[in-house]
Write a structure and sequence with these properties.
The complex is a heterodimer of chains A (256) and B (185). Chain A is mainly α and 256 residues long. Chain A contains 7 helices and no strands. Chain A has one domain (2-26, 83-252). The longest helix of chain A is centred in the last third of the chain and has 40 residues, at 169-208. Chain A is globular. Chain B has one domain (2-184). In chain B, helix 3 (34-165) packs antiparallel against helix 4 (172-184). Chain B has helices at 2-6, 12-20, 34-165, 172-184. The chains are: A mainly alpha (256), B mainly alpha (185). Chains A and B meet through helix 1, helix 2, helix 3, helix 4 and helix 5 of A and helix 1, helix 2 and helix 3 of B. Chain B: Pfam families: ATP-synt_B (PF00430). Chain B: Belongs to the ATPase B chain family.
């Protein structure tokens, strides 16, 4: 809202500039109409479908030849597989590998949605809290349920820091408990916030490009932001996944 | 939102949508779209999960395992072949050494045989030479003996004749003794 108001001021000054940095995030029905019920095919549906196609194209089509000497696509599929597999194994150990398809699903979805969001005129799925909150809650619920199923009540030991002095432990327990429940919030807002901010900033710069005097600067700025956003797209997916692994480790080995 | 409605470039549908948002600036906070997004996200995640866990990940895992296996096998095979090559080289060297010693043995044998033959031949030739020499010596001795006798006979005859010519009666025994004396001299 702040950016929009800021843009509006500029529009008022220059008379020609139009800033709608947040319009790119509007959820619209694909086939007209303006009511959105839960099943309406929207641009969300479209880009979710494209994400699925990209993931299938990379991981399924890419590996379909099962070549011992891989093609480029197969190499990429194998590198992605190895990247997440190694991350999960390093953090959670061998028993964490049961969750490999789950973690891989999260990573592939986020990284694909992030990069697809950088295609001009596209829709960024992961810039929406509805999406990231669901993802974060999935992780949170999985970790909590797995923690209690595997460790029973001793999972609560996660909050009882046995290495601290006895007097401090209740206070630490409260802090740990709060931090545990804040996890899904930070987990989801970090991802959506990063994506939304970057895309909005690019739109603001794009709005300035209509002014002849500043347009070279603005185009340079968009280019630079785009590079930065490519980095952010990967780093945020990586961060989300590695945090998922760390939380899963808590569920598997709750002792500090 | 006011600027949005004032904007000439804004499409009518979007304006209607903006109004539907009820003045919320961030589409992210437009809760009316949440069920829709959550539903499609759930569908997407389930599809991705099924595709990954049923098809993609086992396949890629299989490929990676197969490659590791192949590389290990190839390395083992290479090690094998290397050992075989070393073995073959040793066998070759051994064969070479054998052949060389065999050749030396055969050469030595041949040399010994030839030496033996040569010795035989030399011995035979020596014996023959010795026999011939002995024979020749005998012949020479015979000849020499024959010659002496002839000389004595001739000398005796000549002496008798000379003595006769001088008018003396030659005494055979005395002539013979004198000749024998002279012959010794």
């Amino acid at each position: 809202m702040a950016t929009e108001a800021h843009g509006a001021e500029h529009a008022a000054e220059t008379g020609g500039l139009v800033f709608h940095p947040m319009d790119q995030f509007i959820v619209k029905p694909l086939f007209g109409g303006d009511t959105i019920s839960w099943y309406t095919p929207t641009n969300v549906t479209l880009w979710m479908a494209i994400s699925i196609l990209v993931i299938v194209g990379l991981l399924v089509m890419g590996s379909s030849r099962r070549a011992i000497v891989p093609t480029r696509m197969q190499s990429m599929a194998e590198m992605t597989y190895g990247f997440i597999h190694k991350m999960l194994e390093d953090i959670c150990g061998k028993e964490g590998l049961k969750f490999f398809p789950y973690v891989m699903t999260l990573f592939m979805f986020i990284v694909t949605a992030n990069f697809l969001g950088l295609v001009p005129m596209s829709f960024t799925l992961t810039s929406h809290f509805a999406v990231t909150v669901v993802l974060a809650l999935l992780v949170f619920l999985t970790v909590t349920i797995v923690g209690f199923v595997k460790n029973g009540a001793s999972f609560l030991g996660l909050f009882w820091v046995s290495s601290a002095p006895l007097a401090l432990r209740p206070i630490l327990a409260v802090i740990e408990l709060i931090s545990y429940f804040v996890r899904p919030v930070s987990h989801s807002i970090r991802l959506a916030g990063n994506l939304m901010a970057g895309h909005a900033v690019m739109k603001v710069f794009a709005g300035f490009a209509a002014l002849t005097i500043v347009s070279p600067v603005s185009i340079l700025a968009i280019t630079a932001m785009y590079g930065l956003e490519l980095l952010v797209a990967f780093v945020q997916a990586y961060v989300f996944t590695i945090l998922t692994c760390v939380y899963l480790k808590d569920a598997l080995h709750p002792s500090h | 939102m006011a600027t949005e409605t004032h904007d000439a470039g804004q499409a009518a549908a979007d304006m209607a949508h903006g109004a539907a948002q009820g003045g919320v600036g961030m589409p992210q906070l437009d809760f009316s779209t949440f069920p829709n997004q959550v539903f499609w996200l759930a569908v997407t995640l389930v599809v991705i999960y099924l595709v990954l866990s049923r098809v993609a990940l086992p396949r890629i895992g299989g490929i990676l395992a197969e490659r590791t296996g192949t590389i290990t096998n190839d390395l083992a095979a290479a090690e094998d072949l290397k050992a075989k090559a070393v073995e073959a080289e040793e066998a070759y060297n051994q064969a070479l050494a054998d052949a060389r010693s065999e050749a030396q043995r055969i050469a030595a044998e041949a040399r010994a045989e030839i030496q033996a033959d040569l010795d035989d031949a030399i011995a035979k030739a020596d014996a023959e030479i010795a026999a011939k020499t002995a024979e020749s010596e005998k012949a020479i001795a015979e000849i020499r003996a024959g010659a002496l006798e002839s000389i004595q006979t001739v000398a005796k005859d000549t002496t008798a004749e000379i003595v006769g010519a001088l008018g003396f009666q030659a005494d055979d025994a005395a002539v013979a003794g004198a000749i024998a004396d002279r012959m010794k001299g």
